[in-house]
Structures are given as C-alpha cells and as structure tokens.
Amino acid sequence: FRPALALAVTLLMACFSGVFVKPAHAALTNSSTDLAVLVVTATTNDAALPAIRQALDFLGTPYTVHIASAQPGALTADKLSLGLRGFYSSVMLTDSQLAYSPDGVSWTSALSTAEWATLNQFSADFAVRQINWSGYPTPDSGFNWPTAAFDSTGNAALGTWSAAAKPSFPYLVTANQFAVSNVWTYLATPLDSNTTVWLADSQGHALIAVKKHSDGREVLSMTFDNAPWLLHSTVLSHGLGTWANKGLFLGERHTYLSAQIDDVFLADEMWPAGEFRQSARDWAATITWQKGFNTRTLGRNFRYDMAFNGLGTVPGEYENDDLTPYVRTNKAMFKWISHTYTHPYLDDISYADALTEITKNNQTATGLGLPNYSRANMVTPNITGLNNPQFIKAAYDAGIRYFVTDTSIPAHRPTTPNTGIPNWVDPRILMIPRHANNLFYNVSTPEEWASEYNSIYAAYWGRDLSYAEILDNQAELLLGFLLKGDVSPLMFHQSNLRDYNGAGNTLLGDLLGKVADKYERLYNFPALSPTMNALATTLQQRMNYNASGVVATRHANNTVTL
User: Fold this and answer.
1) pLDDT tens for each residue of 151-169
2) How far is CA 198 from CA 99, 166, 222, 329, 360, in A?
3) Burial 301-325 (b: 16+ CB within 10 A, else e)
4) pTM of the model
5) CA distance 328 to 257
6) I need a surface site. Which of 1, 95, 246, 546 has the fewest CB within 10 A?
7) CA distance 334 to 385
8) Which residues of 112-123 are buried (b: 16+ CB within 10 A; e: fewer)?
C-alpha cells in the first residue's frame, strides 16, 4: 500500500502546491476552544483511526470523527466554530494528505481544496494544533522529499529524542533510543528552520517533527504508520495528545498493575498430573519477591491480591499444613478477596448454599485477621454464577457489590475502556473486567508451563518455544495493558507462586519481572495497585463521566468552564 501511495501523493502535492500557504496571520483575540478533538480520516479503513480512538477512549477525552470520503464537501466553517468559540482544541489526521483511492486505481485527497482551506483557517484563527498520525513526507509538512522508505519489521528505525520533544513526554525514558517497528517508514530530512525535529535517526532523518507555518499553525507529523496493536503507537499516544491540546484536556492517565491470585489455601491439579498447594516456603518466597519488586519503578505500589478459599485453612483438610499458620503471621503485605469457601461452581447453586459459601468465607477472613479485606468484593470460582439469579440475590443480600469477569469471553468485555459491566441479573452489582492470560492455573514450574504451552501453541509457532521465549511473549501481552492505561486486573493462581527452584523464583515473579524490564525501558513512573473495590470505584466514576456528556471550554484568559 505505502510504496504505491508514495508516487500518488507526490503527484497530488505537485498539483496542490501553494494551496496550503497563507500569509502571516494572528489568531483571534478573546477566542475560546472546547476541550475536544476533531479526528479526520479519509475512510474508516485508515489504520491510524483505531489507534487514535484507542488513545482518546482510554483517556476519556471527547472527540468527533469526520469521515471525509463519506461526506464530500461537508467540512465547512460552521462545523468547526461559531463566532469566537472553536469547537475543538486540536485536530488529528489519520494521514497527512488524507489520500485514498475511490476506484482502486487512482488516488486523491478525501478533502477538497476548499475544505483544506477551511480547516487551516480554523487552526490559524483559534491557534489549534494538528497531528498527522502518518503520511508521505512533503515540504508542506516540514520535510524535504524522502530519499528512501522501508519496512521496519525486524529492522526497527531507532530514533533519539530532542530536547524540544521531552516536555510532552515526561513519562518516557527519553535517554533511551526509541524504536519504530513493524510498519512502513519513510526517511526524510527536516526542511528548514521552521521545522523542529522531535525524533531523528542516526543519519538525521526526522521520524517526528513539528512544522510552524507562516499563518501560525503548528503541525506535528510522523513519517511512519500507526495502528492500535503497535507498541510505538501506544507509547506515543499520551504525549501526542498532551502536545496537541497544549497540556490541557479532559480525561485521566494512570498505569495499573493488579494481579489477583485465585485458589489461595487450596490445591490445584497440575499439568500433566498430580496436584500442588503452596507451602510456607512458597509464601516466604512470595513475600521476599514482592519486597524486591517494590524497589522497582513499576512495582513501587504493588501488592498481590490473594483470592482465598477458607476451606483450605480447616485443620486436617491438608496433611502437614504449614501454610495456614505461616500466613496468620505473614499476611499484612497483601490484599485479600473472597473466592468462596469451598470453590463450588455457582451456575446452579441455591440461594441458601450460596449464602453459606459467602458467610463462611467472611468468617474465615475475620478469624485469620486478614487486612485490606472487604465483604463487598468477590472473585467467583471459574467466573461462574454471574447469570444465576439465586446466587446473585444471595450475593447482594450478603453485601457483595463487585465481581470480576473474564475478558477472553466477548460478553465479559466492557463497551468502552476502563468501565465496568452492570451485572446482568442485578445491575446494582458492578462487574470488573479481568484479563486472563497464558500463565495457566495448573502449572508451577518452568517445565510444566513450557510443556502445556507448547502442547497448545506449537502448531501456531511451528516449533516448541523455550521457557525464556514464553516469558517474553506473555510479558509483551501484559505490557500492552500497562502502556494503554488499562485498569483491569490480571488473573493468576496460587500454583503460579511456587518456589520452583528453592531460590525464591516463581513463575509469576519471573513473568512480572520481565514485564518490569520492558516497562522500565520505556516509562519512568510507577503503576497503581488499588484494592478491588477501589478499582470498581474508578470504573464507576468513568462510567458516570462518560454518561455525563460533559463539555469543557478553555477561554482566552486560560480559565476553563465545565
């Protein structure tokens, strides 16, 4: 797609040269802008569109999408402003020229010459910044014509950050080189002194640059493609939005890391046979690991969430049980969640039996003196019971207000990021989306994990993966949740916290350590690790915010009206 487009856009720009150049122009005085983003795309298939949506949706920043090819000539001045009020504080284009092919052969811009002029006039009048999320480098966007282009898959374009870029990316480790990979990338040098380079490779090609136009407009362009699944797109999105909106926007941004450990005090069946239940030694290793993780940037606030079953603490339930007495005096570092008393399937349980399960586990929590425990929270066994009216009534009557779901099931996913799902039986109970992953419930050693993983995925990869490769692959998956600012907790099991080598190593510790290695090469601030009910409060607040339809306006005196 990109090589063919290059020639088309070159010809397009040759025809349009001169259209975008305006004389010096001062922005309107005493004007105001609404804190919302105008997103303009040629078609719904532009790869950068879902990347922009993802960024703004996770932030909670209001935006409007204008599909230019579907509404020819519709981008008129009345859609952008009224008098001294601009309807948008920034503009984001999926492609610098909004080039598309209406017939599959020829290429053109989805905006007419008049629409480009209207958009540029609006940006100049209201001092609104623009971001081109991809596009062929041209003099109009601040570049000399490109001298080369390449597919950066397996051959990343490595860039160094300039001082000009750093204020927009306070969360980035800008001392490290930044990799752009798995996309088509153009190589072009900056045009002149009106172009400020943000990210450049070692040969002086500008990968990200800002062009200051003679009419006062500021336009940031990237010479590489973007998509929601690409690491560089996710990492850059918050800084791009910060710059585009001059540091002021509706929304919020945090990194979250919540690891919920199911089946604590019970034994799990192991792959390929046998069972495993934690011992005092495993618990001690978990404590030691968490203390070490708390010294890292990512893990400064981190505490495991222990989802426990009280049956496992009953004397005689497990022979030579040294775990329960050890936990009694070594429990303060963790958060605690009810996982029912006996771990039953809840889809067909009666009201009376459900109430017993809930009540007896609450009694266990009291008897053990578990800290950070709330009767409002429950992780249901195998995520069952969420559709069972008998169980849901018992849960509500017992004071439970929050469950978790399994996002590997489509119906268990929220419609918008960082929001919850009202329970289908009783919407007064809020369900927290929880991410499953491929650290399976029934593995406790590297050998077990590699064996089961390869039994499932060897055909997909074309070979067996080593333990180190599996760790890296799964760490990349979890890293994506963190980089996006996803609030959802992660699902694990007590077997994943086995001290598998007698030196304090656990599968989950290895995995989160690998996540931290990747995270800390990019980000420089810690994750939040709230309790389950605090997570639910965050989700409910976002849901209330989304439903409010709030409009914010920034005035010329730098005050904001909500």
Assistant:
1) 999 999 999 999 999 999 9
2) 25, 8, 10, 53, 59
3) ebbbbbbbbbbbbeeeebeebebbe
4) 0.94
5) 26
6) 1
7) 26
8) eeebbebbbbbb
